[in-house]
Amino acid sequence: SLEGGADCISFASGQAATLAIFHSLKTGDHVILPDDIYYGTKVLLQNHFSRWGLEYTVVDMTNLDLLSRTIKSNTALIWIETPSNPSLKITDITEVVSLAKSRGILTACDNTWASSFFCKPLDLGIDFVMHSTTKYFGGHSDITGGCIITGENNEQTKVIRDFQILGGGVPSP
After folding, report:
1. Taking a C-beta distance cutoff of 8 angstroms, is the pair 150, 4 a contact?
2. Are strands 106-110 and 75-81 parallel, antiparallel or unpaired?
3. Rounded CA gap, 77 and 20, in Å?
4. What is the distance between the alpha carbons of residues 72 and 14, in angstroms, rounded to a whole number?
5. pTM confidence score
6. Per-residue pLDDT of the chain (173 residues; tens, 9 = 90+)
7. Comparing C-alpha atoms, which of 145, 155, 147 is closest to residue 110?
């Protein structure tokens, strides 16, 4: 309810949540990542998903012209992290969403640092919001967790939820 989403899928960690979004894509899909991003997100694509034929390109998300030129015919997802970690770069979510929607591309936003208090990416058109609930939601960093909030319940949401259940990424009580 903090994000105003249609559904929330909880995970054992923020990385498990991120992993589920990437797992919902197909072999041969292309992902665009920010050049300043949580280390583990890029490593997932670089070391794990590249073996499965998932492609990615890293780009400065503050440069919309460069972002536009980075889009390929097989681009399936643009991943946003704003403010970014660690340099705190700010991405214009509305402009990125507009560009993505005009080309039929999904968008996901790691909203961990901004939190739902300062930014509501779903209100700006983002398809999926990811949080590492270990940080602000947990309050003390004494628990590990993650979540994905979806803008709507659709087939992609079902694939992510199936991965959460079947992949064992569920949080402990």
Report:
1. no
2. parallel
3. 13
4. 28
5. 0.94
6. 888 899 999 999 999 999 999 999 999 999 999 999 988 898 999 999 989 999 999 999 999 999 999 999 999 999 999 998 889 999 999 999 999 999 999 999 999 888 888 899 999 999 999 998 877 666 676 788 999 999 999 999 999 999 898 888 888 77
7. 147
The pLDDT value given to residue 143? 83
Consecutive H or E run containing 154? none
d(CA 138, CA 145): 8
Rounded to whole angstroms, how far apart are CA atoms 132 and 115? Answer: 10
For residue 14, the SS3 value is helix
Q: In the prediction, which pLDDT does 88 show?
A: 92
**Pair 24, 163: CB distance under 8 Å:** yes
Looking at 71-147, list the stretches that DSSP marks H as alpha helix, in order from N- to C-terminal side: 93-102, 115-118
Concatenated DSSP letters of 21-69: HHHTS-TT-EEEEESS--HHHHHIIIIIGGGGT-EEEEE-TT-HHHHHH
* 85 phi and psi angles, rounded to 5 deg: -120, 115
Q: How far is CA 61 from the centre of its chain?
A: 14
d(CA 1, CA 29): 31
